[in-house]
Amino acid sequence: IALWDLAGKILNQPVAKLLGGTFREEIPLYSHWGVRDPLSREAWLEGAQALKEDPHGFKAFKIDIHHVLGMPMQQFRPSIGPRDARRVNLAYSYAREALGDDIDIIVHCHCELDVPTAIRVAEAVEPIKPLYYEDPLAPGYSEAWMALRRATRLPIMTGENIELAENALPFLVNQAVDCLQPDLASSGGITGVKKMADLAALFRIPIHLHNVSGLALNMASQQVTAA
Question: pTM (2 decimals)?
Answer without folding.
Answer: 0.93
